[in-house]
Specification:
Layout lengths: L3 E4 L36 E7 L5 E5 L2 H28 L2 H5 L6 H11 L2 H10 L3 H20 L20 H7 L7 H5 L25 E7 L10 E9 L6 E8 L3 E8 L7 E3 L3 E7 L5 E9 L2 E7 L2 E4 L1 E10 L5 E10 L5 E2 L10 E7 L7 H10 L3 H11 L5 E7 L4 E5 L8 H13 L1 H8 L2 E5 L20 E4 L29 H11 L15 H8 L5 H14 L4 E4 L2 E4 L1 H9 L11 H8 L14 E3 L11 E3 L8 H15 L8 H4 E5 L2 E4 L5 H4 L5 E2 L28 E2 L2 E3 L1 E8 L2 E8 L14 H7 L4 E2 L4 H5 L5 E7 L4
Parallel strand pairs: 3-6, 10-19, 25-28
Antiparallel strand pairs: 1-18, 2-3, 2-33, 4-5, 4-20, 5-29, 5-30, 6-7, 7-8, 8-9, 9-17, 10-11, 10-16, 11-12, 13-14, 15-16, 17-18, 21-22, 23-24, 25-26, 27-29, 30-31, 31-32
């Protein structure tokens, strides 16, 4: 595997679309033997202090007790979600819930058993340090204590009374992180020709994938910090429902560990956060971690493939799962899955399993069990050097960039995520095919490298890459590592880390513009150095690059032409033009014209964002990636496609019963337990706004989802419910290191609990809507000063 990194520098010197942002960084790398390693020999003993927003500050003398307190506190907030996700990892959803729509529960269970998540979880657990093992065992014991104290019909949330809410084990926590979530249906429905279709082939979804998974991360060094120390802006964009959302915590083992932050639900420890010396966050990396292998099949046998000219039989795995019937009885259902030495055979639209060809996939992280050791070392780090050494020794997070700032004023970016190390000729062949071959391009949009699996030269191994120093700033917004800074470039690395000298997203460009703006009216003020207040303000600035580049010339053009005919209807552009002229280009609650703009900009194709064409006049220039493409495209061939798009946007709003100057807050709302909370921000891909919100439901959870509404004809995003927000800016934090320690403000927008009857489910969504931050309580004095703090002391026996 390879990895790349740099420290911010004034001179030149990937990871929260998709998916999903953090894959159980500790639980995925946890072991079952040596349960008391790293813990005291006596029983558990832990103190939990909850502050006014429900954040647990957990203190214990050993890691086992720390996990015990964390598991108990977590169960108070999210027992339902972890029970659901463990049910999935155990492969038991169909037993309790039936086959599911389109056989989704059956497919999930078949894959869980075929992949033996139990074995994978055990290997993962056994690879972890003793402290992590003790913590995970304690976490499970703490969760189980809560269940023992709480009758199942009184568990807060949406799972009360369900028979599948049961005690868990450390192995259950570990196996969750080894579940192959990205390709469940593709694996479950793959069958050789003649076996009969189990389900429709699943599409590459080239446009939908990646457009709703996003994050922003800034690390500010001494040269751009008012105090001369490090600063961090953490803004992972993630789900607000389901098992992938975040939970906030503060974990302390006196003399060893004192760390604050978040992790995904059911994951012990902190994945994004800070200690007294280093603060860090993550974004989803643009690196390619998955390879699809196109296999030439042996003549006359569709379950054997050629490898360097010799046939190899596929590996069969026959799986039987119990499926609940409508009358409550259980019926065994058997499926046969097929695998290769690369990995499982999958069912993909455009690459069907025929008599001549099949497709297998290989994930570089399938045998990556280093996450527990990595995150423990990160949380303990007492310097940036120690933090970097954690990555050098254990490798980076499985699919994430890391962006960090230190107390001494340094900023660091690394894409240390593992990627396939391909032979130069194989990599060159893939790059050539990616330029012209539609199938290779489709695989690339899915985040995969398509290779010839019948040629041994397509095998890959691993290695790691370089790091470098500096004190300016770095950032990432999910594009590849090539542009970590407005002017510095990181180049010369494997194309598996993502492309170089290619267009950047509008959101990446907007982030760079905000950081590079040294004008007296810029985000960092007259001195060009960020203060904490300024960092907090720019986080919710809601400027969108698309409108900054194109709104003014569009207003000028539509002012010269009052009518346009589209769909055989003549549209009066006057009111729309006035609405855009009076709009300030931001995506705030009171922004009038923002909804019209969104419907206008989403009339174009995704690729139009990156080159000259129907939208932009000036083409992309690789020497000016932050500035290009730019300029509004002129009319061509007697048509003004831009004004036609504006007229179509007007028609969409007419069909939805909305005026062209409707305020964004009247249309863009989050359903929080029936409360319709207006939400600011925009779609990062289409509008280029860093404060990203999205509208995609979470499909891997049993948790009831907010109403999605019926699509409005002609719109990509608008529904009968407006823009119903279900994710995006999920946890947001700004932090500065001071002479007295770290000082931070934060919001967990998705809420600290999954109980929809609790104010902690919606209160921080409302704070976010009004752009009000809460102070993070980190020191003992700050916690004690909270008048609403509650204290719980837990003691209990350890698992034998």
């Amino acid at each position: 595997m390879r990895a790349i990194a740099l420290l911010a520098s004034a001179v030149p010197f990937r990871t929260l679309v998709g998916v999903p942002l953090l894959l159980l960084p500790l639980a995925a790398a946890c072991t079952l033997d040596g349960r008391r390693d790293g813990s005291a020999a006596s029983g558990y003993d832990v103190t939990i202090r909850r502050d006014a927003y429900g954040v647990p500050h957990i203190v214990a003398a050993d890691f086992g007790s720390l996990g015990y307190g964390e598991g108990y506190a977590f169960a108070q907030d999210h027992a339902c979600t972890l029970a659901d996700q463990v049910l999935r990892a155990r492969g038991e959803r169909a037993r309790y819930l039936g086959r599911g729509e389109r056989d989704v529960h059956l497919a999930s269970d078949v894959v869980a058993h075929a992949f033996s998540t139990e074995d994978a979880g055990r290997l993962s657990f056994e690879a972890a340090p003793p402290e992590v093992r003790a913590m995970v065992v304690g976490y499970a014991d703490g969760y189980n204590r809560y269940l023992a104290e709480t009758p199942v019909d009184r568990i807060p949330g949406w799972c009360g009374g369900q028979p599948w809410v049961r005690p868990i084990s450390a192995l259950d926590l570990a196996r969750r992180g080894k579940f192959p979530a990205a390709f469940v249906m593709e694996i479950a429905t793959a069958a050789p020709p003649g076996a009969g279709p189990l389900a429709a082939a699943f599409s590459f979804n080239p446009e939908g994938e990646g457009l709703t998974t996003a994050s922003n991360a800034w690390a500010i060094g001494a040269e751009r910090s008012e105090r001369g120390r490090g600063m961090l802006f953490a803004n992972p964009h993630w789900f607000w429902t389901g098992g992938q959302r975040f939970w906030e915590k503060h974990l302390t083992v006196p003399g060893d560990l004192d760390v604050y932050g978040i992790s995904t639900l059911g994951s012990p420890g902190v994945a994004i956060g800070f200690n007294r010396h280093v603060a860090w966050t993550h974004t989803v990396s643009a690196s390619r971690r998955i390879t699809f292998y196109s296999l030439k099949l042996a003549p006359g046998d569709p379950t054997a493939y050629l490898y360097d000219g010799a046939p190899r039989p596929m590996r069969k795995r026959v799986v039987t799962v119990d499926v609940r019937q409508p009358d409550g009885s259980l019926t065994p259902v058997t499926r046969t899955l097929y695998g290769t030495h690369y990995g499982p055979v999958i069912n993909l639209a455009g690459l069907p399993w025929t008599a001549e060809r099949a497709v297998a996939y290989r994930d570089v992280n399938a045998a990556n069990f280093r996450g527990g050791a990595l995150y423990l070392a990160m949380q303990r780090a007492r310097s940036l050097e120690a933090f970097q050494q954690a990555h050098a020794e254990h490798g980076g997070p499985s699919f994430l960039n890391t962006i960090a700032a230190s107390v001494d004023g340094r900023a660091w970016y690394a894409d240390a995520s593992p990627v396939p190390d391909l032979a130069p000729d194989v990599l060159a062949d893939w790059l050539r095919r990616r330029e012209t071959d539609a199938t290779t391009q489709a695989a690339d949009r899915r985040g995969a490298i398509l290779l010839d699996g019948s040629d041994s030269r397509s095998e890959w191994s691993s290695e790691s890459g370089p790091r470098g120093p500096g004190r300016d700033y770095v950032f990432n917004a999910n594009d590849s590592a090539w542009v970590p800074h407005a002017t510095a470039r990181l180049s010369g690395y494997s194309a598996a880390f993502g492309p170089e000298r290619t267009p950047r997203s509008l959101r990446t460009r907007m982030n760079a513009r905000l950081l590079a703006d040294m004008s007296p009216t810029g985000p960092a003020g007259a001195d060009g150095k960020f203060a904490l207040d300024e960092l907090a303000t720019v986080a919710f600035d809601n400027r969108g690059l698309a409108s900054e580049l194109l709104r003014a010339p569009l207003v000028e053009r539509c002012g010269r032409r009052s009518q346009v005919t589209v769909e055989a209807v003549t549209v009066n552009l006057g009111p729309a033009c006035r609405a855009l002229a009076e709009w300030n280009g931001r995506l705030d609650l009171d922004s009038r014209g923002a909804v019209l703009w969104r419907e206008f900009i989403t009339r174009f194709e995704a690729g139009d964002q990156f080159r000259a064409g129907p939208l932009f006049a000036e083409d992309y220039d690789p020497d000016r990636p932050i500035d290009t493409p730019r300029g509004l495209a002129p009319p061509r061939d007697g048509r003004d496609q831009v004004l036609e798009a504006l007229a179509q946007a007007v028609r969409v709003l007419e069909r939805a019963g909305l005026s062209v100057d409707v305020a964004l807050g009247q249309v863009q709302r989050a359903d929080r337990s029936g409360r319709k909370v207006p939400v600011h921000g925009g779609h990062g891909f289409w509008e280029g706004v860093p404060n990203f919100v999205h509208f995609r439901p979470h499909t891997t959870t049993l948790e009831p989802q907010p109403p999605a509404g019926r699509p409005v004809p002609g719109s990509r995003l608008l529904t009968s419910e407006g823009y119903p927000i279900t994710g995006g800016t999920s946890f947001v934090m700004v932090l500065e290191f001071t002479d007295r320690g770290p000082r931070a403000r934060a919001l967990l927008v998705s809420g600290q609990t999954g109980d929809p009857t609790s104010p902690r489910f919606w209160e921080q969504t409302e704070l976010y809507a009004s752009k009000r931050w809460r102070d993070v309580r980190f020191t003992d004095g700050e916690i004690r000063a909270d008048p609403a703090v509650t204290v719980t002391r837990l003691r209990g026996p350890r698992t034998p």
